[in-house]
Amino acid sequence: MDKGIDLLGSLTINELQEQHQMIADAVGVDGLIRLCECFGGSSIYIPQKKELLKNKIYGMIYREYDGSNIKQLAVKYEVSEATVYNVVRDRLTTKKGGNVLGQTSFADMGWTEDAL
User: Fold this and answer.
1) Cβ burial, residue 97 (10 Å; 0-12/13-18/19+)
2) Residue 89 forms beta bridges with which residues?
3) Using the 8-state DSSP alphabet, how is residue 80 labeled?
């Protein structure tokens, strides 16, 4: 097997199969060899660039949330309002009775337990 290691050190991109050349074009032959060492024989998922930024963007949304800017943050960071709600869920203030901001309870509408 030592001979295989020696051969890898002198491997050029032109000596690779076409599908492997595409990867080597992106990460270099040494990078391809490293990928083989780490993940050889397994399937790996390569995310889109926006996935790489998800945690960073969510952190920025969390820090910039001021209680009234969900729609603006959704537009700014190109995510849905539901995503912003999910990111800041633990920061949503609650009213007496545990209602989430913007949610109406029966008591808010004047209904009592007797009326139900």
Assistant:
1) exposed
2) none
3) -
Cβ atoms 35, 45 nearer than 8 A: no
Q: Is the pTM of this model over 0.70?
A: no
Residues 13/29, Cβ–Cβ less than 8 Å: yes
Q: Which runs of consecutive H residues, i.e. helices, occur in 1-116?
A: 2-9, 18-39, 49-52, 54-64, 70-76, 81-88
Location of structure tokens 């009326």: 115
Q: Please give the Cα distance from 29 to 61 (Å, whole number).
A: 39
Tens of pLDDT along 73-91? 999 999 999 999 999 988 7
State the amino acid at position 87 in one-letter form: V
- Say how far apart CA 71 and CA 91 lie, in whole Å: 16
